[in-house]
Structure formats: C-alpha cells, structure tokens
Amino acid sequence: MTSPAIRAERLQQRLEAFAHIGATPAGGVNRQALSPEDREARRLLAELAQARGFQVFQDAIANLFIRRSGRDDSLPPLLIGSHLDSQPTGGRFDGALGTLSAFEVLEALEDAKLETSGPIEVVAWTNEEGSRFAPGVMGSMAFAGAADPAQWQSLAGSDGASFSDELAATLAALPEAALRPLGTPLSGYIELHIEQGPSLEKEGLAIGVVTGVQGTRWLKVTVTGEAGHAGTTPLPYRRDPMVAAVGMMHQLQASVMPSDADARLTVGRIATIPGSVNAIPKAVTFSLDLRHPSAIRLDAIEGEVRAICRAEGEKQGCSVEISMAFDMPPGVFAPGMIDTIEAAAGRLSLPSKKMVSGAFHDALFLARVAPTAMIFVPCRDGISHNEAEYVEPASIRDGARLLLEATVAVAYGAAMTSGGERP
Amino acid sequence: MTSPAIRAERLQQRLEAFAHIGATPAGGVNRQALSPEDREARRLLAELAQARGFQVFQDAIANLFIRRSGRDDSLPPLLIGSHLDSQPTGGRFDGALGTLSAFEVLEALEDAKLETSGPIEVVAWTNEEGSRFAPGVMGSMAFAGAADPAQWQSLAGSDGASFSDELAATLAALPEAALRPLGTPLSGYIELHIEQGPSLEKEGLAIGVVTGVQGTRWLKVTVTGEAGHAGTTPLPYRRDPMVAAVGMMHQLQASVMPSDADARLTVGRIATIPGSVNAIPKAVTFSLDLRHPSAIRLDAIEGEVRAICRAEGEKQGCSVEISMAFDMPPGVFAPGMIDTIEAAAGRLSLPSKKMVSGAFHDALFLARVAPTAMIFVPCRDGISHNEAEYVEPASIRDGARLLLEATVAVAYGAAMTSGGERP
C-alpha cells in the first residue's frame, strides 16, 4: 500500500472529457439540469465509477452517489462532491471541478488500496444552478429535508419542459444506479468549488478555507411620486420618485459597504414608469441584493435600508413600499471541519485564508444535516457563470491535493502527510 | 355692426362636439394624426367653416386653413389656431382648445360683420403630437420650411401604418379644401394653448403671456463598468456603473435646477445590463431631458453634465459615453406681439404673467417665419397628455376673449375694447 496521491493529468483529462458534454462554441458548457447533456454526464461518471468497482446510487430527486466501500458500509459515509449541471452559458469548472476532483480522490484512494473504516462517497447534486428549473440547490435542499419535492411536480422549466418528465427520464437513463431513500445519514460533507470571486487570485492565495455562506436578502423598493411633464414642471412642483430613489441609493452605497467589509449591497435592476425621456416618472422600482454572514447584521442593514428609504421618500413627497423578494439565512460550517481543512492546507504548504462564501452552494443545505466545510480555489479574474471561466492547472492540482488530504484526515482523524499514522 | 364678442356657450358646445370624435371611456380622446378620427374632426371643422361662408384650404402636408376674407385677400393673413390631433390617451383640450377658440374668433368677427383689411385664417396643424408618426410638430415644421416632407415618405407609424397612405387618405377625404402651396407668407401667428404645467393655476393667474419656448436637449448617458456577482465581489474590486450613475444623477439633481429657476433637468428613463437582481451591472444607461430658454445656458448645462459624468465615472473606474438624442434650440417670440397680448390682457382685466413655454408647440416653428406669440390658460393641476386633462369654463372664456381682443388689435394695430378705433 502506497500513500494516496492525486494524478493531476488524469483529473485534467476528466475535466476535458466532461467539458465536451454540452460544449458551447465559446468554450463553455450548456449542460442544464435534467437535460440530455446532464444525463450524458451522469452516465459518463457512472461508467467511470463502475470501471473502478465503485457502486452507483441515485435518490428520487436524481442526486447521484458513487460509493467506495469501507470496512463497514453501515457507517454513515463521508460525502465529497458538488454538482454537474451548468448555467446556459456556463463555465466548465463551476460544479464540475468539485465533483471530478472528488472522484479523483476516490480513484487515488483506490490506486493506493487505502482501506477506510466507513465508506467514502462522491455526490453530484441535482440542479444546483436553478437556471432551467427554479429554485437552484434543489437536490441538496431536498436531501437535507428543507423542501418536499412534491411541490415541484407541476414545475415547468425556462424552456417549457416538464420537471416531472425530465426527472423521470433522468432516473430511467441510469438503471444501474440503485435507488436509495432521499436523505441519508452522513459523517461529514466537504465540497471543493471555484471561488467565483476575485479575492484569492488578487491576494495570491492558493486556497480559501470557507467558514460559511452569507445570508442573502433581496428587497424590491417601489417609490411613487407624481408624473409630470419634464419641460413644464418647475422644481417646487415636482414629487419626483427618481430624485428620491437616487437619494436612497446614494446614501446606501456610501454607507453600507464602506463601513463593513463583510456586507454586500447591490442595485442590479431599476425601472421607471412610464419610462419616457420627457416624463417625470410616476414611479421607480429598484432591487437591493443584501448579503452578510451575520443574520443580526443583515437585519440591521435591512433596518437601515428601510429608514433611509422612508426619509428620502419623504423629502420628495413620495411614498415608499419595500417588499421582501427572497430571504436566505446565513449558513455556518462546522468549526472542526474548518480546522481540519486549514491544518491540511498548512501541511501541504498551500497559502490560505478563512473566508465566507458570497454565493450559494449545496454545502449551505448540507450544513444543516452534517458537519460541513468548503474549499475554494481561485478562478481567473473571479469570473464565473460565464463561458470564459478558467482555473489554472496549478489551482486544480492544489484543490484536489487538499481535498484528498482533508478527506483522509476526516476519515481517519489523523494527518496523511508528514508523519501521520497509516491505518 | 356691433362690437365682436365671444359666445362662450357656442365654444363650449364646439369643444363637446369635437370631444366625441375619438372619445375614450375615461373622458379623453384618441384622435391621432391622420387617423379616421383626425379626418372626421377635419371634416366637421370644414363643414362648420363652410356653413359660415369661410373658405377651406389644405396644403400638401394636410395643414388645414379656414379663411375669413378681408378687404384685400392678397395681403398675408393673420393666422390663429393650433392642432386637432391628440395623444393616444390624450385630453380634450390639448390643441383643440386653441383651434376651436380661433374658430370662435372668426365666428365672432362674422357675427359682428367686422371687416378686416387682410384675411384672418384659422389653422389646424397636422401631427403636432408625433405619437403616431414621429416627429411631432410635423405640419408646422414643414410649413416653416424647417423640414422637407419627402423625408417622411417611407415613414411607418407606431401602429405600422404607412404615413404616405394615411396622408393621401386625409387629403382625399376633404375634396372641398382647395390645395395651396406649402408655406405661405403670414402677417403674424397667435396660438392659444393650455399651459400643460401647474404655475398659472397655483399662482391664481388667468393668462400666461408666452415669450418663447425653451430649448430642449435630450442626452443618453451610457456608463460601462465591470459585471460581477453581487455576493462574491467585495467593494474594492467593484467597478459598478450603477454607483457611478447614481453619483452623476445625485450631483446633477442637486445642482442644476436648484441654482436656476429656468432650468429643467429630468431623468425619465434608466436601465441596467444584464438587469439581474444578483448581478453588479455591466452597464447602465439613463436619459437626461435638459431645458432652458437661453441657448447659452443650455450649452453650459450640457457642459456641466459632461464634466460631472466624466468625474463620477472615473471615481468608479467606469467609462462614460454621452450621445445627443435630440436638440431643439430655444424659440423667441416677437416682442411686439408679446406686448400687444399683454396689453390686451390688461384691458380685459385678466391677471397675467410673462412666461416661457416648457413644451414644444407649433408656434416654435412659426416664430421662424412670422411675428408669433402664444397665450396660455391654466389647466387643472397642470395635467396634460392625460385623459383627466381639464380646463375650467371661466378659463375657456378668458382665453377666447383674449384671443379675439389680441386678433383685432393685431389686425388693426388698435385696441378693440375701451375706446379703441373701429375700422
């Protein structure tokens, strides 16, 4: 038995192979959830698994599991993985990197004939992106018992497809995957993913040790004033909702993020009614995307938004309505898992920092049912959800090595590298 | 021969009759240019004219003229009138008040058998609104030689209709209107119109003596930054065009109108790309409607806009592009005509003020070819381009009386009321 080691060129080849499934001319992938491309990717992974003697399972929402047995398969598995579905014009690494790196870990363990006490499983969660069928993180949400899949029975996709039909077709396409119940006990969950942000690259770090997922709140602000003629209405007679909205956004942009490095406030969408060049608008609506890893701070930011909007509305004689369009509480990962990963990165001499994830991940829901952590690797310019998404081969290697080191450390409660006990 | 006098109830009835043509359920009119409703209104006016023995003419762009002969019809006529076409959900007074008040003036002169040296003509200009076929003030623009109608030959309407076909149909529908050349000499032009703004009503004045039309400039500002994920991108790594745009609008809203009571600056339309709630925009575009009666000040305001936009763009690392979408220089009316109208208002004990028009009118182009002035009357809450548009009967009466007094004063160079010479 040898020390298990990642074979970087094998992982690189796997990434290439999967990048062909749903490939777009611009070098990305269109491999949306429960599509023929998704089914093709699942088939390929299942066949690679069976070639190594791993067992393949799926549950009722088509989450795909690949098991490498341990001494005692009745023990709850350690689960590693991510998702395989993509955005319509997605990159080849978002989800695929984590899933295929996890499979490479299984292969490395198998190459080294390392025996573990319980099973190690790779997972490809169904419909993480939510672009074809909303909502996203669907498979992990259902696994964690946070949603009942029955509610999605009549769901139609962005392309008009029937969710039920596509789910049935996806399950049927992999008859060799034995069916298992939805939601099974785990000993832990580790997910590797690209950062989808610019900070690791800009700070020259190899690894992000992710401590949790920010809470997210989407607000819709509607400011109503009085429509009027842009030419004939002098200033004292105006109740201009655009002036009020600008006042609101200006204050919020100047105060929220500058005073708190963990906060995010973004105006992504705005519209005026009637929207004529020569009309003082009757109303303005704009969106606010608020994020913070602390639920208390998120509440405080929302309170600040409401107070500022009310005040600026009053200044212009406008009324303000704020509705909540989306609310996802922060998720906190397990301190023990975080420490294990950080220590593993140290042993591999990979410069790292602790950080919060700005984007949702399946790990957010897994954290509710098992000790969970995530590993980030840098992606070029932080670009994701974009066909130009790119990860350096060195980062691919670093991430997979750390995932293997961390998997073994969690499986054994001991370090693999530098003098740790071998089982 | 008696002193000519407006018959207010007759004018009120005419307004009612025309309000039925293209009437909307909400009490307004949909009588767009060169439509069947427009043709019906022209027919009705032509018949009323012929019933009084007035002659009816039209030119190649379907401007409609009604002549009451003077002693010498070779003299250039004094022209009074406005337009009959409306917005899709327009009010019953915008344009119709001025045209029908002018016709009431002709009827009052005819009732009194008052002989004038040259002819007095009423005009209904084609397509003032520009809502169906752009641009607006089309008939007066062509009359004044400011545009060649040939350029509109292939024009299609907002409803897909062919401008050429509709123009031909409109001309053909009034065979009794003799054709005259496009653009004929005038001795003067007076237009009565609703203010379409709130100031006369709020200041308790009966009449606005209009000294000119503001210059108008429409700019399109495009701010380009860097798209990004709203959750993962920290503030130092953002080049957010929405922040830049808000900075621009905030400064402009705070400085331009507050420092100059004659200036108007309005943001009527704004959009983000891609326009997702969770995306820092790649770009933001917004419109600026700028107005000022002074061309020099309009240039200075545009300069201020460009400087502020450039500076705010730089602060956020964004590029800025500003294009001119529309540019109408200010129009100045004839001092002699203005004085005549002001004096006439005084003789009728109508409280008035001099003021600039915030909206375009046919008078803007007439001012290029003849001594021109306008009379404003208040409309309720300043509302126009709206089915709720309303003018008090007292204001209708005041406007028509003043139009008659001013017409006679211009035609004779003398006052009609209070001891002026009778011809």
TrEMBL record, chains A, B:
Domain Peptidase M20 dimerisation: from-to ranges: 212-315
SUPFAM superfamilies: Bacterial exopeptidase dimerisation domain, Zn-dependent exopeptidases
The organism's taxonomic lineage, starting at the top: Bacteria, Pseudomonadati, Pseudomonadota, Alphaproteobacteria, Hyphomicrobiales
Family label: Belongs to the peptidase M20 family.
PANTHER family, per database record: ALLANTOATE AMIDOHYDROLASE, ALLANTOATE DEIMINASE-RELATED
Listed InterPro entries: Amidase_Cbmase (IPR010158), Bact_exopeptidase_dim_dom (IPR036264), Peptidase_M20 (IPR002933), Peptidase_M20_dimer (IPR011650)
Protein name from the UniProt record: Zn-dependent hydrolase
Keywords: Hydrolase
A molecular function GO annotation: hydrolase activity
